[in-house]
Specification:
Elements: H1 2-8, E1 14-18, H2 21-32, H3 36-40, E2 42-46, E3 66-71, H4 75-79, H5 86-94, E4 100-111, E5 122-130, E6 133-140, H6 144-151
Parallel strand pairs: 1-2, 3-4
Antiparallel strand pairs: 4-6, 5-6
């Protein structure tokens, strides 16, 4: 998997989330083959993403917030990705600040020409078609109030005139 490749190339940490027990055991076996250092930098978490906080507890809390997320659900789920789907809710949850860093990138693998709707908390950065699939890279969208601040230069403060002003003229 991409996570194993990242570990072998020196990633600081990798978290695998997998529902299937046998797949988790295979992941643990493969991570063990990379050595003790890789095992210390890796969490193989058997969980259901639809019931998961994405925030490991205890010593595993060191793994969040995530900087890169590789999201590879079964292709049939991609076709159902819409504002009313559980997968949509999960993708919104992954954008929470206690789960992912401000500069997080989400890599999504889909079948070719899949029609789906992403939550507006993710904005498309790159898209590449490959064979019978497509790779999308999203970044966290900035909140509208922050986006507007970045687009407009900050106003320049006028220097204060500290000379006393003259008394107003009055007619007698």
């Amino acid at each position: 998997t991409i996570g194993l490749e990242a570990l072998s190339r020196g990633a600081a940490s990798v978290v695998f989330l997998e529902k299937d027990r046998k797949a988790v055991e295979l992941l643990k076996h493969n991570v063990a083959s990379l050595g003790e250092e890789a095992q210390a930098a890796c969490l193989c978490w058997q969980t259901d993403i639809f019931r998961c906080s994405f925030r490991p507890k205890g010593d595993s809390a060191k793994f969040v917030p995530f900087d890169w997320m590789f999201f590879d659900p079964p292709f049939v789920m991609i076709e159902e990705l819409s504002p009313t789907s559980e997968l949509f809710r999960v993708l919104k949850q992954l954008a929470r600040d206690d789960v992912s860093s401000p500069d997080t990138r989400l890599v999504l693998r889909t079948p070719e020409e899949a029609q789906f709707v992403m939550p507006d908390v993710w904005e498309l950065a790159h898209h590449w078609p490959f064979s019978h699939m497509e790779i999308f890279i999203y970044r966290k969208a900035k909140p509208p109030e922050l986006s507007n601040l970045e687009e407009q230069p900050a106003p320049i403060a006028e220097p204060l005139d500290e000379t006393p002003s003259a008394a107003p003229e009055t007619e007698a």
